[in-house]
Every structure is written in C-alpha cells, then in structure tokens.
C-alpha cells in the first residue's frame, strides 16, 4: 500500500488506529492535508478517543480550522456529543471558547446542555 496524506486521512476517518500508527511511523506527516485540504485530525472518527490520542501524540494540531467552515475538531466533538474525544482534545491544547467558526460559533456554543453539564462537573468552565 502506498502511504500518503490521503490514505492517512482515510484511516483516521475510519478509526483504524493500527493502520494510522503504521503510516505515522513510516513518516507520513500528521498535519499534512489530504486532497480536500483537511488534516487527519479534522476528519478523524470523532467517536474514537484513541485515534485522537494517536494523532496528538504525533503532533497533530487540535485547533486547526476546517478550510471551508472554520470549525475545529473541538467544534465537531462538542456538536456531536463525543465527551471522551473532546476531553482528549482539551487535554492537548484545544479550547472550548475559541476560535469561532465561520458562523461565529465557539465549540462550547455547539454543545448540548447535557454535555455542558458534564464538562462543568469535570471542571471545565
């Protein structure tokens, strides 16, 4: 298999941690964009905190905005309610209150009341 940014993004989107690890170990840059201009952390399976941890361990930028919407992975995790992935992102430099996406929304603005309550209980204000 020919490894490149597109194949790394595909593995990230599928949540294939083992294949993504193999590609990263082979030297594929973790922040290299695919043919659509998105990085692996932007397209990763949000329900896989293990994928988030792997990409972040290799130096992925958790605050890189989507080229078309301005959303960051934190926006996506908050909007979809993936608390475990959101916590991984927050522990690695992401922020609930910035940046704003192209619609003026912060990640916290997209979180459900239930997710906001859980974050508050965990000490995130």
Automatic annotation (TrEMBL):
Q: Which PANTHER family match?
A: ANK_REP_REGION DOMAIN-CONTAINING PROTEIN (PTHR24201), CYCLIN-DEPENDENT KINASE 4 INHIBITOR B (PTHR24201:SF8)
Q: Which domain of life is it from?
A: Eukaryota
Q: Which SMART domains match?
A: ANK (SM00248)
Q: Which UniProt keywords apply?
A: ANK repeat, Repeat
Question: Which Gene Ontology molecular function entries are recorded, alphabetically?
Answer: cyclin-dependent protein serine/threonine kinase inhibitor activity; protein kinase binding
Decide whether keyword Repeat is in the record: yes
Q: Which InterPro entries match?
A: Ank_Repeat/CDKN_Inhibitor, Ankyrin_rpt, Ankyrin_rpt-contain_sf
The reply to whether Ribosomal protein figures as a keyword in the UniProt entry is no
Q: Write out the GO biological process terms.
A: negative regulation of cell population proliferation; regulation of G1/S transition of mitotic cell cycle
Q: State the name under which the record lists this protein.
A: Cyclin-dependent kinase 4 inhibitor B
For this record, the Gene Ontology CC terms, alphabetical, are: cytoplasm; nucleus
The residue spans of each ANK repeat are 69-101
């Amino acid at each position: 298999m020919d490894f490149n940014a597109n194949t790394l993004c595909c593995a990230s989107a599928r949540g294939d941690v083992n294949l993504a690890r193999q590609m990263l170990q082979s030297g594929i840059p973790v922040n290299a964009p695919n043919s659509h201009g998105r990085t692996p952390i932007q397209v990763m399976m949000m329900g896989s905190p293990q994928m988030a941890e792997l990409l972040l361990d290799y130096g992925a930028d958790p605050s890189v905005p989507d080229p078309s919407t301005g959303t960051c992975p934190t926006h996506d995790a908050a909007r979809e309610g993936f608390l475990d992935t959101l916590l991984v992102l927050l522990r690695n430099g992401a922020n609930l209150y910035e940046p704003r996406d192209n619609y003026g929304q912060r990640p916290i603005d997209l979180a459900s009341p239930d997710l906001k309550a859980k974050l508050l209980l965990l000490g995130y204000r």
